[in-house]
Specification:
mainly alpha, 14 helices, rod-shaped, single chain, about 280 residues
């Protein structure tokens, strides 16, 4: 047999130069045609493949079966994590493993470790409450950062729009703003709002409650006395003041200082009052 193997390895010609024989000839007939052997040119290639396969088998990990003991399953997982530490493993009933999983995903060990975007302070968000809620709901650092950034941007945009609306209301109501605000507050309180809610009314809500005040007949003179300390001309919104100015311009006594001097002076004085209310920014 040894002579036969030597002959197969050296070739039929009795040496290296005699041409290679079919090394499969020494195998049982049932093995010779196996497709797994077709790419091996000689016994040496087959042996090399066997050595490499043996090495791979030694390094491989066989998953435990469904009936395996808990310690065997744990040993399998421990071995797997040694080979690839980046793997995340969180089995049921293993609090320590679950905790490691959350740490790998980015859950901080304490709420104070959550990083707060700069805009959160500008937006006036309660950072401590947000951190506590994030820790309770197990938000990762990245999730917390994205959530707070989104909330901050939305809050700042709301504040910007509210500021613009406040300026618009001041221009819209002009000298009548204080009186109309008082009337709106009174209407709101009659409808059940408390003092803190009334003070927090937005410009849009003030417009709505002032419309209610007009509809239900709020005593405007009473609010006017509160606003200016008693007496004085009734404040008007710029649009209404401009309409009254147009009416005065249509009165011939406004331009005639001789036919009725007292009426002329009254109209001129009233025109001056209306001008201050019609153009409050001037």
């Amino acid at each position: 047999m040894l002579d036969r193997m030597k002959w197969l390895m050296e070739g039929e010609g009795g040496g290296a130069g005699g041409g290679a024989a079919d090394w499969r000839a020494v195998l049982p007939e049932t093995m010779r045609a196996d497709p797994a052997l077709k790419d091996f040119k000689d016994v040496g290639a087959l042996a090399q493949s066997f050595i490499e396969t043996k090495s791979l088998v030694g390094k491989s990990i066989r998953p435990p079966g469904p009936e395996a003991k808990p310690e065997d399953k744990k040993a399998f997982v421990d071995r797997l994590l040694q080979i690839e530490p980046a793997l995340v493993y969180a089995p049921d009933g293993d609090p320590a493993a679950v905790e490691r999983m959350w740490r790998r995903l980015g859950l901080p060990s304490k709420p104070e470790e959550y990083e707060v975007p700069e805009d959160a302070t500008k937006a006036g968000l309660d950072v401590n409450d947000l951190r506590a809620l994030a820790a309770k709901t197990k938000l990762t650092k990245g999730q917390f950062r994205d959530l707070v950034a989104t909330m901050s941007a939305a809050t700042l945009e709301q504040k910007r729009l509210a500021a613009l609306d406040k300026v618009a209301l001041e221009q819209e109501w002009g000298e009548a703003k204080e009186e109309r605000t008082l009337a709106a507050h009174a209407a709101a309180m009659k409808m059940g709002l408390d003092e803190s809610e009334v003070k927090a009314l937005t410009p849009k809500q003030l417009r709505a409650f002032f419309a209610v005040a007009k509809a239900v007949g709020v005593n405007r003179s009473e609010f006017r006395r509160q606003a200016d300390g008693g007496g004085g001309a009734e404040p008007l919104a710029p649009g209404e003041a401009q309409r009254q100015m147009d009416e005065i311009r249509g009165n011939p006594h406004y331009f005639d200082a001789y036919t009725n001097p007292s009426e002329h002076r009254r109209l001129v004085s009233r025109m001056s009052e209306l001008a201050a209310m019609a153009y409050p920014q001037r």
